[in-house]
Structures are given as C-alpha cells and as structure tokens.
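A reminder from the course coordinator: this example appears on the midterm review sheet, so study it carefully.

Given structure:
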C-alpha cells in the first residue's frame, strides 16, 4: 500500500481528493474511525448519519466510512443517495453527526466528504477536522485500526430513506400552493438535483410545470460540469428558458446545495440579488410573526453587493458582515440568531434549516416571490440589482502579499479606505462609489478579485487597474 498524506486531501472545510490515488476505502475507514473518536464519542452522539451522491465511487467509500465509525461502537444510519442539504436535514432532524460523500462540482475523478456535528453544525479545520485528519493519519501510518481503545461493542449499521421527509420539511417552510402557475426549467447537471427536484417541486398540488435538463444521475457528468459558477455551464439552461418561454431557470451544482437562477430572458441573476430578495422575505416573515424588525439579524459574506446590507437596513433589520466560508457564516448566524445568511457564491443559509445552507429552500423562496405577483423575474429583482459588479476574477501570483500591497496603495491614493475582515476590501465613497476585494486562496497561489461600482465604466476602470497591478511582475 502506498503512503497517504491526508494533508493533501483534508481541506479547510472538507475532504476532497482523487480516487483512488488519494481517497480509497482504506482512507475512508480510517477517517470514519477518527470521526467517531474525535466528534461522535466525546459529544455523546446517539449515532452518525451517512449519505452519498451519485458518483460511482461514493457508495463504497460511504460503506467503508460507516464501518470505521461502527468499529468504534457508534451506530450508523445510512440514508443512501441524497443531496448535501439532504444530509444536513438528516443531521438536524435525527440530531446526529453526519458525513456526506461528495466532491460537489469537482470533475468525475474526485470524491470527498463533508462532515458535521449533530444539528448540522460544521466540522472545519478549527472545529475538529484537523484532529480527525491527524488521528486518521496515525491509523494509516500504523496500519492497525485495533490500536484504538476497544469500545466493547460494534455499532449497528442500518438503512433508511429520508427523501420524502426532506421534501415535506422544505415545503412546510415556503408554501407555494397560492402561487400563480409557473414554468421552470431546471438543470440538474446530472447531479443530485435530479433526485431532489422531483421530490420537492414535483409534488402534487403545486402550480409548477418543471422542464427537466440532465436529471439522470451520472457522476461522469456527460453534458457539462455541475458547476454553475462557470458561465459556460449555464448556456444550455439559458437557451432552454427562452425556448420554452419559461418564467425562470434553476441550475444546481453536483451535490445540489447551491442554486443559481436565470430570468425569463435567459439572463443570470446575481447571487447577491437573490440574497437581498430572500433577506427581504425572511425579515418580513419575522415581522409578520410579531418580532420587531430591529431584533432581526441577517448575515452576509464580506463581498456580496452593497445592495444586500442596504436592503436589510431598509427593512429595519440588522446586517451582520462576516468572512467568506460556510463555517464563518454558520458561526456568526448562530451567535446573532440570524434568520438568514447569504454569500456571493450562491450559498444560502437558513435559521429554520439548522443554520445550514440549502439551495432548494432559496429556490422555493424565489418561486414564491415570483408567483405572488404578476411581474416577470427580471422586473422583480431589478430593485435589488442597483450596482454593477465584475464577478470573481482569479489571478495566479507568486507573492500575494506584494500584489495586494500594490493594489492597496493605489486605492488609498484615490481616497479609498481599507477593511481587512477578509483579505482586504478597499472602498471609496462618493460619486461614483466603488469598492474592490482581494482575497488569497486557502489552497492555491491565487488572488480573488471582486469589484463593484455605481456604473459599468467605473467598475471596468477599477477592475482593469487592479488586475494590472496584481499581475505585474514584482
């Protein structure tokens, strides 16, 4: 057996690697045993719930992980094929720690694991994942799982199907039965939305006509990568929306925890715009239930559009800004008891979904907002899209700190003020207003640039200037 370095596959928030070169059954079993020892047993968990996506290697890896957990005396509930938010639902509803086998939007040769504590609480590098990695590495290096203390029993491994419960729970949070009839094209990208969309949106009594694209579960992704963040992966959906005269289009990533939206013209709706729209709805829901708006908090990632905090403030609620990344968003949401959280990457988090992210619940909100009135989606979201953004642009750099310093110095000469919550954000108020954010990648020699302004000409000028400074040789 070749040596395995788990530092290469255990990332900041999850496990991700090539199969079988970096991630195989032996590694999955070691990670399962370590997860039981580090997370399940110390917290007195009643068990661990395990789900997996449609990749060919996922069922075997999930079984080996479950065997590792059970070997430590912890019971395992296998829920089979599911989306990542389906696993979070299982963790929350069963009150158990969880493991989801998926590589999300990565190509077919990859697989991975997303881990959580009971109640869908995240397990990241700073909240147990590093300890899981180190113990699993120790087990692999010794080649002997029996070196762990004997639990006195082997945990049970049982199977159950929670798809119907997941779908019913989501529909209980957003009622579409009073909506006007809508036609929606859904691109599942051969990912798990091919299973979850029929269960949630295809239920009887909903006034929806669903036009399916690539609903066949196929982990080789024969049509396009299941990564809607890449514009070319949305081309088929955009064309189908126009062809069918649909009211909107939905695109999910491979594990169906993110959802992207296309309006009736085939134009992509920015995730910041969706964040503002859903925030408005969640705040209004709390106020209708008798809460003071000032007591309602909504969390947003550091680089969403300025329209997001402005929308929250206009509704009388509190906007709380946090670093990019699900572990940060979830922690800040729990701290402030926020009703909702959103990021520029189309991750949408809900208090009523155990503070976890679910693209399907965001989709239900957008469908409900559209169906409650007569205007097309492009008009509905226009009020939330009042700035011009560049989208995220990556640059490969040898010295990220020096590149950032050059851009920061230029911005300060223009009167911009620095904020260092997440990388550096430089903001210049006045007319025209602009801001840009530069964040280094955690795993690659990349700087990620986002720019926003009042108008396109200014945005493009700032974008091009910063890119030139970032990419110039030191």
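Designed residues:
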């Amino acid at each position: 057996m070749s040596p395995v370095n788990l530092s290469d596959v255990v990332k900041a928030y999850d496990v991700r690697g090539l199969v079988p070169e970096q991630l195989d059954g032996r590694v999955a079993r070691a990670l399962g045993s370590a997860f039981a020892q580090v997370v399940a047993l110390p917290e007195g968990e009643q068990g661990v719930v395990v789900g997996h996506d449609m990749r060919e290697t996922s069922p075997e890896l999930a079984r080996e992980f479950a065997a590792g957990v059970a070997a430590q005396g912890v019971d395992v509930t296998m829920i089979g094929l599911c989306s990542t938010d389906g696993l979070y639902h299982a963790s929350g509803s069963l009150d158990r720690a969880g493991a989801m086998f998926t590589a999300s939007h990565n190509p077919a040769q990859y697989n991975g694991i997303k881990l959580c504590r009971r109640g869908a609480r995240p397990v990241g590098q700073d909240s147990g994942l590093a300890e899981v990695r180190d113990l699993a590495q120790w087990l692999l290096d010794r080649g002997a799982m029996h070196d762990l203390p004997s639990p006195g029993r082997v945990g049970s491994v049982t199977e159950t199907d929670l798809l119907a419960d997941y779908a019913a729970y989501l529909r209980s949070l957003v009622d579409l039965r009073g909506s006007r009839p809508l036609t929606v094209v859904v691109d599942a990208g051969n990912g798990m939305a091919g299973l979850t969309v029929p269960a949630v949106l295809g239920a009887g009594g909903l006034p929806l006509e669903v036009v399916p694209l690539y609903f066949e579960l196929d982990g080789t992704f024969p049509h396009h990568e299941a990564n809607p963040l890449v514009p070319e992966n949305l081309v088929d959906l955009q064309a189908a929306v126009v062809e069918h005269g649909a009211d909107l289009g939905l695109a999910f990533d491979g594990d169906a925890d993110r959802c992207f939206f296309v309006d009736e013209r085939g134009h992509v709706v920015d995730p910041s715009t969706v964040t503002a729209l859903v925030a408005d709805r969640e705040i209004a829901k709390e106020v209708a239930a008798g809460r003071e708006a000032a007591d309602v908090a909504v969390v947003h990632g550091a680089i969403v559009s300025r329209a997001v905090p402005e929308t929250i403030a206009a509704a009388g609620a509190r906007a709380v800004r946090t670093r990019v990344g699900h572990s940060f968003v979830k922690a800040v949401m729990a701290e402030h008891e926020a009703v909702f959280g959103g990021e520029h990457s189309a991750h949408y988090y809900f208090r009523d979904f155990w503070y976890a992210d679910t693209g399907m619940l965001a989709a239900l909100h957008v469908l409900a907002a559209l169906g409650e009135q007569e205007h097309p989606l492009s008009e509905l979201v226009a009020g939330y899209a009042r700035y011009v953004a560049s989208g995220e642009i990556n640059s490969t750099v040898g010295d990220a700190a020096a590149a950032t310093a050059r851009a920061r110095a230029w911005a300060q000469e223009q009167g911009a003020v620095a904020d260092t919550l997440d990388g550096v954000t430089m903001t210049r108020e006045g007319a025209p207003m602009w801001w840009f954010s530069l964040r280094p990648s955690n795993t690659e020699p990349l700087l990620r640039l986002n720019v926003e302004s009042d108008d396109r000409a200014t945005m493009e000028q700032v974008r091009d200037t910063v890119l030139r400074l970032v990419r110039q040789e030191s």
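The longest strand covers residues 110-117. The mean pLDDT is 95.
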